[in-house]
Design a protein that fits this description.
Helix content: 25-40%
Strand content: 25-35%
CATH superfamily of the largest domain: Alanine racemase
Radius of gyration: 24 Å
CATH topology of the largest domain: TIM Barrel
Number of domains: 2
Number of helices: 12
Bound molecules: pyridoxal-5'-phosphate
Shape: globular
Strand order of the largest sheet: 11-14-17-16-15-18-10-1-19-20
Structural class: alpha/beta
CATH architecture of the largest domain: Alpha-Beta Barrel
CATH class of the largest domain: Alpha Beta
Length: about 375
């Protein structure tokens, strides 16, 4: 690493997070979602997730699945998107489980290679998945009659979190209706939903698996139970739409593992009245000191909506003059020296909030120009993706 800008990923935190999740819930299959380079952490973290207790992985495309496969030769990996049938032999060779999203895809499959498949149900999002129960039954029966394809799983993805909205309950009802002609109990893995399904709902009795993404990376989605008028409003809403109870609190103890760091590259004095940055955006109100940090929007350090800061030696310093493609200027004081570490963010949730985006987007915005440094105990490993 020649430029001192990197993301630090604490692998031990990720392992502890999964252990903590496993202590709190009762699923048999914890399918760790590692798409988008493990939500920006980098797929090096796969080993730490498996050590914590994840026993299946899921990624979006065949490219992503193959990249994850390089990190571990044994764990089953589900590809969440349908893979062009031309490449199914690559899936067989690499133990990649495919998704069958509809009857047309199934008809296109030529067969002949031994594959594991999960069928996807569209319970209301209108994206991927079977909507017609007769088509589903036809495909399930047909798979039962052939020797090359193993129907290992069935799943759906909810359109909403189901926290005080009626869509989630409708989605669940739709799943039950669409699968009503097949015997779910004969399918080894039934996995519905994502992190919020796990933390905010009671376990769905017939599901033995759960796909977890953001919760593994440290977001527990704890919320305050409403009080007073808000509590009354919630009660009325639940009754009016017959919405199932959700849990807003939980006993998870998770930590985020990702921080974006750089350093002070250069320091200069700016006189009162001088302008700073592109577009002469910031005017110095006094004689001030500024520090230049080698990080910019090309690294995924995004301009925020509500002003922002950088942490140096435990203190917050204001960013002045906007964020450029490669450099950011910070108003500092005499205590700051060249090469001091500048922490751009170490609390993803807080950073996402002041950037006005969600944590998923923030994590996946950090570009591959930024090397990832992995901390495992006392060992540090640098990887450039
Ligand atoms: C199909 C599917 N399942 C599970 C997940 C994991 O979601 P989360 O990170 O909210 O747990 C995703 C993420 O977008 C997804 O697309």
């Amino acid at each position: 690493m020649f430029r001192n800008t990197a993301a630090l990923v604490d692998c031990d935190i990720l392992t502890d997070n999964i252990r903590n999740i496993r202590e709190n819930y009762e699923y048999e299959y914890y399918i760790g979602v590692v798409k988008a380079n493990a939500y920006g952490h980098g797929d090096y973290v796969v080993g730490s997730l498996i050590r914590g207790g994840v026993n299946y992985l899921a990624a979006s495309s065949l490219e992503e699945c193959l990249s994850v496969r390089k990190r571990n030769s044994d764990i089953p990996i589900l590809c969440l998107e349908p893979i062009n049938v031309e490449y199914l032999d690559i899936c067989a060779e690499n133990n990649i489980t495919i998704t069958i999203p509809d009857i047309d895809y199934y008809r296109e499959m030529r067969g002949g290679v031994a594959l594991k498949a999960h069928i996807k149900i569209d319970c209301g999002m209108n994206r991927l998945g079977f909507k017609d129960k007769h088509e589903l039954k036809k495909v399930v029966d047909d798979i039962g009659d052939r020797g090359d394809l193993q129907l290992e799983g069935i799943y759906t993805h909810f359109a909403t979190s189901g926290i005080q909205d009626k869509h989630w309950d409708n989605n669940l009802k739709n799943f039950c209706e669409i699968t009503s002609l097949i015997e779910l109990t004969k399918i080894p893995i039934v996995h519905l939903g994502r992190s919020l399904t796990m933390v905010n709902h009671d376990k769905i009795p017939f599901a033995n698996g759960i796909r977890i993404g953001i919760v593994m990376y440290g977001f527990d989605n704890k919320m305050q139970e409403p009080t007073g008028l808000r509590a009354l409003k919630k009660k009325l809403l639940l009754k009016k739409y017959n919405i199932s109870q959700t849990r807003l609190t939980n006993s998870l103890h998770l930590k985020t593992a990702f921080s974006l760091r750089s350093e002070i590259m250069s320091i200069k004095r700016v006189n009162k009245g001088e302008r700073i940055g592109y577009g002469a955006e910031y005017e110095a109100k006094d004689n001030i000191l500024i520090g230049v940090v080698p990080v910019g929007f090309a690294d995924g350090f995004l301009p925020g909506n509500n002003g922002r800061y950088v942490k140096i030696n435990q203190k917050r310093y204001e960013i002045v003059g906007g964020i450029g493609m490669d450099m950011t200027i910070v108003k500092i004081d005499e205590s700051v020296k060249v090469h001091d570490t500048a922490i751009l963010y170490d609390d993803i949730r807080e950073a996402a909030a002041y950037m006005g985006i969600n944590s998923y987007r923030l994590l996946t915005s950090v570009t591959n120009r930024v090397p990832r440094i992995y901390k495992e105990g006392d060992k540090f490993t640098e990887i450039k993706y």
